[in-house]
Amino acid sequence: MKYLLELSYIGTRYCGFQVQPGKLTIQSTLQDAIESVFGVRLPVKGCSRTDSGVHARQYFATFDSEKPIPTDRLPLALNSRLPTDIAVRSSRIVPDSFHVRHDVEWKEYEYLLLNSRIRDPFLTGRAYQCRVMDREQLGLMRRAAEGFIGKHDFSGFMSAGAKIADTVREVRYLEIIEDGELVRIRIAADGFLYNMVRIIVGTLLDVAEGRIEPSEIPGIINSRDRSRAGATAPAEGLYLNRVNFRAFE
Amino acid sequence: MKYLLELSYIGTRYCGFQVQPGKLTIQSTLQDAIESVFGVRLPVKGCSRTDSGVHARQYFATFDSEKPIPTDRLPLALNSRLPTDIAVRSSRIVPDSFHVRHDVEWKEYEYLLLNSRIRDPFLTGRAYQCRVMDREQLGLMRRAAEGFIGKHDFSGFMSAGAKIADTVREVRYLEIIEDGELVRIRIAADGFLYNMVRIIVGTLLDVAEGRIEPSEIPGIINSRDRSRAGATAPAEGLYLNRVNFRAFE
């Protein structure tokens, strides 16, 4: 049987999702808890390789076991064995053919900017305090955001070190939402390249500060030149927000 | 000159506001930062003695100094010297006659309940995960809440050890707000006895669980018997939310 877990976690203490020797990761912590419940070490697959310090409001992971544990009880059993910065929110049984990464139709990330001169203790490690932006600057960011929508080769918006053949991704939407002192940047796509959201956010911040014109975005994307995009925004503001699977049942 | 600081803080690491020998408190931490900016140790007065683990979205403190520091720069100067779980949000000069505790007209506290079987990593230490309540139980709590409104002797809703002459307080409102998986209990009064909000919340939880009828609340208050009220709800869910001063200028 294949178990599907829905998780959320604060990434601050973790070196990302994926197991790395000698480092604390979400995957290794989750495998420890599953081993404690199932009595045997089971490899876990995740829907995405979130980076060090990145948070998840919704994340999915699967593992296979023939041991039947009622799926309404499994979250509580795992949560009692997990540290309090990780929670299993729900669990269910999925067909063996289900693949937690390949079957993702689209994902939404949210990047949280604290748009204030004054820090907020409740958001330490949970939002990036940017330089203060006014309505006009947010308007520039919104115009620039339009340039990212659609199907593009985003190889200029990818950190070095990632080796992948296909760098074309389709961005469904990129919204910039004011919420008090927060600015929420929500972006959905069929997939994301390594650090793609954080580089897009860094580029939007360059637009807000007048270093890049909104009209330049299509040319920067088409150049496929990493050096023309903005800096990689810090991990602490990034949340995997929502994961949508293709119909599979 | 009297400086008035507006603060917010996460109380988790601190043994409350007030200085205690050998313990980490908000007051001592704040006095350290002020000493670093003003070059001399200055006693700080706070608007309220928040308890160990209690948070503040808004808190006020004053200190006297003849050294003129521009009030638009003071928050940043102090924040660069404070740990990230405390922030000075604004500062201004007030008349010498102003008293940060006596001049409070009313305060609002919020108690955050996580009304879910499943914990939320983003709310660890920031909300109290209660037993799951349905609409009907929340309705009972709302009816019970009405019994607290108005001027009463709340000595039955005070933890032992507090020695004060006048135990009459006037509750302005007590709202129970559903917000997704959260229940926000907001209570405003001209003042609060030691642990009063947490004991009221504990009593409302007893009402939700059927141990106390909503109609019993006036009798429990009038009995002035601590043993008839509910348990003291944990500190982690409590926020000093808003402090309102009498006009003083």
Beta-strand share of residues of chain A: 25-35%
Sketch the major β-sheet of chain A: 10 strands, mixed
How many distinct beta strands of chain A?
10
> Can you tell me the CATH class of the largest domain in chain A?
Alpha Beta
Q: Which ranges of chain A are low-confidence, i.e. pLDDT below 50, for 5 or more consecutive residues?
A: none
The amount of helix of chain A comes to: 10-25%
How many helical stretches of chain A?
A: 5
Oligomerization status of the protein chains: homodimer
How would you explain this protein's 3D organization?
Two copies of one chain form a homodimer. In chain A, 20% of the residues lie in helices and 30% in strands. The model of chain A has no long low-confidence stretch (mean pLDDT 96). In chain A, strand 2 and strand 3 (55-64) form a beta hairpin. Chain A folds into two domains: 2-94, Pseudouridine synthase I, catalytic domain, N-terminal subdomain (Alpha-Beta Plaits); 106-245, Pseudouridine synthase I, catalytic domain, C-terminal subdomain (Alpha-Beta Plaits), CATH 3.30.70.660. With 249 residues, chain A is an alpha+beta fold. Chain A contains five helices and ten strands. Chain A binds chain B through residues 8-10, 55, 57, 75-76, 79, 84-90, 117-122, 124-126, and chain B through 8-10, 55, 57, 75-76, 79, 84-90, 117-122, 124-126.
